[in-house]
Amino acid sequence: MFVSQVVHPENSILTETFSKYHQAVILGSGPSINNLDLTVFKDDFVITMGNFYEHPDIAVINPKLHIFAASHPPITEKVLVDWWTRCHEILPPQTPILIAAKDKIIAQQTFKGRKLFFYSYGGTLPADFTKKILSPWSVTIIGLQLAVYCKIPKIVLLGINHDWQCIQPYTHFYNHEKPSLEYYLKKEGIKISYEEQKQPFPKERLYREYELYQQYESLKKEAEKLNLQIVNGDPFSHFDVFPFEQRSDLILNQNQ
């Protein structure tokens, strides 16, 4: 039987730091985020990802950890540095970042003075961040693995809706024409395949969607084994792998 080796022993501090929280809130970048008051979670274990640092209330939301997936094509080194430099300027300085070990050198050069943690892909469940973790089809899978690894009793998902991958336009809560990964890619003349997508159900996207949902299902089973609860709290999301607990009380304009 293959047993994964410890490659990041320093990450044991993640459980020591975050297991005290009773609730984790994982914030995606779906358009629905613009309709929700997220400042109510400022005292929870808030996990943000990717471009979420562009949220106008990021300082009040006060994420306890920010995550970046491993860099991959078509992201170039220049795009990565520009993107991360912007993040370092905006993300609260006390917020540590969890980054792929393959990007460690650029991360240490860009995020000077900030606490950084590193992970490696190529592992399996159960999640253990001192070892290699499950290679994700979405950065949200990393966030979920972390929350389960820290054994947070309740895990709430907001701003996560994968419909755009097959039937909806590629949009987020932020503007792609302003600083963001999409902005820096376009600035370098790099086309974004999702935006170029013309077919409503391209088979390549459907194959990836299937793999992604299988990962969500596996994490759901893993959480259940540990008596942890994962719910979709977004009242505008149709993402149904996890039970809905739609938080209509978060809607900013109840008249809309």
Automatic annotation (TrEMBL):
Top-level division of the source organism's lineage: Bacteria
Protein name: DUF115 domain-containing protein
